[in-house]
Amino acid sequence: MHIDKNKKLDDITEQVMYKQKNNWITIMNKQDHRFPTIDNTCFGGSFMQYNPSSIFIPEDFNSDEILMINTAKEFSKKEVLPNSIELEKQSDGLMPNILKKAGQLGFCGLDTPEEYSGLGLSKTLSARILEHLSLDASFSVTIGISGGISQIGPILFGTQHQKEKYLHKLASGEWIGAYALSEPESGSDALSISTTAKKINNKYILNGTKMWISNAKWADFFVVFAKLEDIGFTAFLIEKDTPGLSISREEHKMGLKGSSTARLLLDMVSIPEENLLYIPGKGHHVAFNALNMGRFKLGAMSLGPARESIFQAVEYALDRKQFGKSISEFKLIRKKFSDIAARFFAAESTLYRTGSLIDASFHYYHQKDEDSIQANRKSAEEFAIECSASKIFCTEAEGFIIDECLQVYGGYGFTEEFPLARHYRDCRVSRIYEGTNEINRMFLSSRIFKSIKEGKLQKNTTDDSFISSLLNEALKKADQNNDYHIASVSNLAMLHYADQSTRIRAARTGEIGHMLYETFASWAEIQALNDFQFISEKKVLLPSRKNHSDHLSDHIYQTRGPL
Questions:
Q1: For labeling, which of 30, 83, 462, 524 is most exposed (least CB within 10 Å)?
Q2: CB atoms within 10 A of CB 235
């Protein structure tokens, strides 16, 4: 089926929906040849032990998948970015209306199974679509919460009744969802929440305050976590019109001004017994596995604004003249774009490799385990190390890229006249939510050491690079009671994962891919050596790397963006 790319977005909606209804992409329901098979060489953290011959890379998306990706890009360019200023003002009804339009194209139900009005796409493809829906971060967080983390709990752990009741409305964009975990005194330490739940007859009564709740003002549906008396951490599903539930004023934020962020107040909120999600006292399974998937998706949400910033900075550099020539010709500007392109290439390589691993995990456990909920839990947990590594790496790459793009603008970048100021304000929170990057570093190392203790991983890593050799020695010397050592091990593991992913992708993408890898590696190896020296005083010589700034900057000027 051919779709004319020159048609208006509204004109192709019907064609896209036709293909959706006719099961045009079913990667999540069958094993695609491009995705790895879970076995004794492919499991959570296995990148430390094995060097795969191939991984999924963005160039592997097929023509039908690229069609959806391009539709998402067109939606962002035509429906979202022209409204960025009004979105920041939170013009009445604007964000919910745009979200409804996204829902008509299926973008609010990318991961939602088809039987509940979703597209049922692979995690890899849904992340790529979300990346291109994230050119404006305020819209990104709104659709990312409603179409993602607010639905993950019911999708993975919900009863048939809960799925039927809520997922159709959320996936279609008719309803907006929210996820209420954080509290004024409970941020990264999620299990220390003070919101309480008490069972009286066949009802649950909830009391407490939730903070930093994205979509709060617009949400029709909340996944809420509370401590159930004598049982513990438990998840509940609550509708907005439930008596006793109220929303306080909007937070005055530095960025993401177009998104809604407010406190959720629960005062004797009474909900039916059927709205308890999963098992009483097992809400941490819901919360942490939603966060695993959310961290992976946040990587995609970070690449979107980074991609848009690169496009804008390149256009500006080519147009702006100083000292009688385009600033794009200055060596230091060319070096910036070379470094930007390399970091983006590495972040992409890391993220989409992770997506393919998660897809493989869901396929494997659903074939192996007849209990679908337990299969979902195991699938979402398997690659938690890779999800945290991707979250840290992509959000920090986003911060670096946008900062350098703003620098290209000089003084103009510091004004609200140009969109880089908005991207700069918006991107800062990426390193804070879904678990701060510091907490993710602590989690990453603890998971690695736990896997080593259980015999799932070994202290001897695959010696396939300079960074892996540093990680190998650091694992043997690190003091697990020393926070600096723990953070350094996490950094080395993350850099090894990114380096390995980028190198494997480079081998398949020709000369430009090789130059991008060399440029990335020259930075990553310095970072790895610094972290290694926190653990060991051993002197190590860095590998020599070539400078590819001129070739890479020419490439990015021609393409107006990354590879």
A1: 30
A2: 29
C-alpha distance from residue 460 to each of 49, 471, 521, 531 (Å):
7, 9, 22, 18
Cβ–Cβ < 8 Å for 279, 371:
no
Identify residue 251 by its one-letter amino acid code: E
Average pLDDT, the chain: 92
Using DSSP bridges, classify how beta strands 325-326 and 321-322 pair: parallel, antiparallel or unpaired: antiparallel
Q: What is the pLDDT of residues 535-558, one digit of tens each?
A: 998 888 899 999 999 999 999 999
Active site residue 434: yes
C-alpha 521 chain-centroid distance: 23
Give the Cα separation of 71 and 16 in Å (integer): 9
305: CB partners within 8 A, 6+ apart: 134, 135, 136, 137, 140, 398, 402, 423, 426, 427
Q: Are 531 and 553 in contact (CB under 8 A)?
A: no
Long-range contacts, stretch 469-474, CB < 8 angstroms, 24+ apart: 470/528, 470/529, 470/531, 470/532, 470/540, 471/48, 471/496, 471/528, 473/532, 473/536, 473/538, 474/531, 474/532, 474/535, 474/536
**What does the angle CA 352 – CA 358 – CA 360 come to, to the nearest 5 degrees?**
105
Distance CA 534, CA 532 (A): 5
pLDDT at 27: 36
| Nearest one of 214, 87, 89 to 145, comparing CA atoms | 214
Which residue reads 């059927």 in tokens? 274
Relative orientation angle of helices 137-144 and 123-133, to the nearest 10 degrees: 140
Q: Does pLDDT of 4 surpass 50?
A: no
Answer for the pair 165, 122: CB distance below 8 angstroms, yes or no: no
Which residue blocks in 456-509 are alpha helix, DSSP H?
466-477, 483-506
3-class state of residue 431 by DSSP: helix
DSSP state of 279: S
Look at residue 148 and give its three-state secondary structure.
helix
pLDDT recorded at residue 3:
40
CA 416/CA 200 separation, integer angstroms: 53
Question: How do strand 177-180 and strand 196-200 relate by DSSP bridges?
Answer: unpaired
Active-site residue identified among 434, 454, 518, 525: 434
CB neighbour list of residue 321: distance below 8 Å, 6 or more residues apart: 327
